Each structure stands twice: as C-alpha cells, then as structure tokens.
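Ticket #4471: structure output looks truncated?

Reporter: J.K.
Steps to reproduce: submitted the chain below (237 residues) through the standard prediction queue, then opened the result file.
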Amino acid sequence: MLFEQKTAAPDSSSAQKAAVTMAAYRIKSQDILQIRNLQNVKYIVDEAPVSNSTTSGGSNGATTGQTFQVDDDGTVALPVIGHVAVAGLTRAEAAKVIEGLYRKSLLKDPIIELKIVNLKVTLLGEIKGQGNYPLTKDRTTLVEMIGAAGGLTDKANETNIQIIRGDQANPQVAVINLRNIQSINDPRAVLQNGDIIYIAQNKRAVRNDNLQNISVISQPVLLLLNTALIIFTLSHR
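Returned output as attached by the reporter:
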C-alpha cells in the first residue's frame, strides 16, 4: 500500500518552510558527544582515558569511543587538549576542530569521528516498536525510522503520519502521506531532535474498535434484559 501514488508533491510553501528548519543540528550545552580517533580504535588518544572522561559502557568502550558531555559554558573537556568550544558547531565542524587540535598537539594524522548520542525521536501509535529512538546521523528520514521500528501495524493509516515538532508553546504538525511516492523527497520527513511521530489508526480499524466497544457495552444490557424476561416469564406461569 505504501508509495502507490506517483503524483501530488508537497506544496511549495510547506517545502520552503521546512527547508529553513532543515539546517544541520548545532551542538548545545548538555549534549553528549561520542568521540574516537579512527586511527586508534581503542582510545581517542594514544593513552588510556583520563579519569574525568566517561566511557560508553563495558567492553564496547574500545570500539564505540568515549562519551563526553558539553558543559554549560559550551565547551567539552577532552584528554590532553583540555576544554574545546563546540556549542553552536555542527557535528562535522566540531569533529574538524577537535581533529586539528589533536594534530597540532599530540597525534599524527588523526581521523576524528564525532557523534551526538543524546538526540532522539519518539514513535507512538500504530507502529510495531513504539518508544524512543536515537538519531545517530545528520539526515535520518521518516521512512528509515519506521523501518528501524519494525514497520507499521495492520491498523495504521499510512496516509496520516503526523510529525509533531517545535517547543510546547508553538508546536508544528507536518502530515506525511506514505501512499505518495513524493513523500520520500518531502523535506519535512527529515527528522529533527525531539520529534514526536504519531501514526493514527485507519478507518477500518477505528470502525472495528467502535463495534467492539458497542458490543462490550451492549452485552451487560442484553444479559440484564434476558434475566428480566426470564423472571417475568416464570412469575406469570
């Protein structure tokens, strides 16, 4: 049922508004950065990590890199090079800055990989895997995230996928129609940190649920009427 329509691209005004908000995420205070030097898979530097850094957990620390939290002043404390200002930078910009500092002071030809590991979206409704999912790359699409969550349920209304974003005072809702092949190119479907994705039920599922609710409500009433009828019949014999 998905992507069966070949026309009806998103209207230009919505696309233009979405394009403004599609800029790469910029690092903020309290963000958690996962950093490693690809030239040395064990540590970010060529020595064991200092005590004030936090590994990413267990034996995986050797392969996934260490994690460092951005302080309130917008800097992140890294081994050897100390505090580095990263707030306001994109992931790629911060990686380049850190790479340059390590090249200048310690490492030969470092290749720094940097991920922002606290970014996430929330999936609710008719999807097989509800919950919070991390945004591990710069441009994660709605279709990719639905796939990561196991896909839609049989009750899902694939024409009404709502992406709710923005602050609580001014939330914005984008409705994506996954029957439309153009939804693949819809800039609104590029997910942002904090997005809430809600998949509504289709009409048939809503109708079936309503019938079930009516049945649940009517059963006690019918039982009561049958009981009253039996009592009435027995009392008039």
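Triage note (M.O.): checked the attachment and the full token line is present. The helical segments are 12-20, 61-64, 91-105, 142-148, 203-235.
Status: closed, working as intended.
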